[in-house]
Design goal:
Blueprint: H1 2-20, H2 53-57, H3 68-93, H4 103-129, H5 132-149, H6 152-157, H7 164-180
Length: 191
């Protein structure tokens, strides 16, 4: 009984966080206008969680969202902590290897965590877009991280772990840049 509760609680927390975060955001686009019909090479693909490249090139002159820096720090802290707790540590321990004890459960948790992390990075990217100071430094690295995370869930559940080193490096790069620019990231994860 205790073991099933320990497995179910983290999965429920992840589901709640996915459903509860990232509500309404204040984008710099005008409401009620129709999008232009011109073609652009920076359009995201279907199912992509990363913002467009054009959005990465524009930063606001003043804050467009309350507590954008604080929200960014919280979302990146959750993403980094969850990645290291549920994906990186089991990967380094060999839990995803064929024949490893608990491989199926670890793979399911890692797949759910990958979806959660992609969501948190998207929300963090929206927060960075609202802060002129953070946008200039962190928008492009977050877009790159979002691109790496866009298909991480399917890769993990399919057994392809080749991109985990790159994702770990990208997360470390974002947290280092953030720390250098006054937004101290503290990794947290949902247990």
């Amino acid at each position: 009984m205790r073991r099933s509760v320990l497995t179910t609680v983290p999965l429920l927390l992840i589901a709640l966080l996915l459903g509860g975060c990232g509500g309404k955001t204040n984008n710099n686009s005008s409401a009620g206008t129709t999008p232009s019909t011109g073609t652009s090479a920076s359009q995201p693909t279907a199912g992509s969680t990363a913002p467009t490249t054009a959005a990465a090139d524009t930063c606001p002159a003043s804050n467009t969202k309350s507590f954008a820096k604080t929200k960014f720090v919280a979302h990146v802290g959750l993403a980094a902590g969850s990645f290291h707790r549920w994906i990186w540590k089991p990967y380094k321990a060999g839990t995803f290897s064929k024949g490893a004890h608990g491989r199926l459960k670890a793979t399911i948790k890692a797949g759910l965590t990958a979806a959660f992390i992609a969501h948190e990075v998207k929300v963090a990217s929206d927060d960075v877009s609202a802060s002129p100071a953070l946008c200039k430094v962190l928008k492009k690295p977050l877009v790159a991280l979002g691109n790496q995370l866009s298909d991480l869930k399917s890769k993990i559940t399919g057994g392809d772990l080749s991109s985990l080193d790159g994702v770990n490096t990208a997360i470390a790069g974002v947290t280092t840049l953030s720390d250098k620019n006054g937004a101290q990231i503290t990794e947290t994860s949902q247990n």
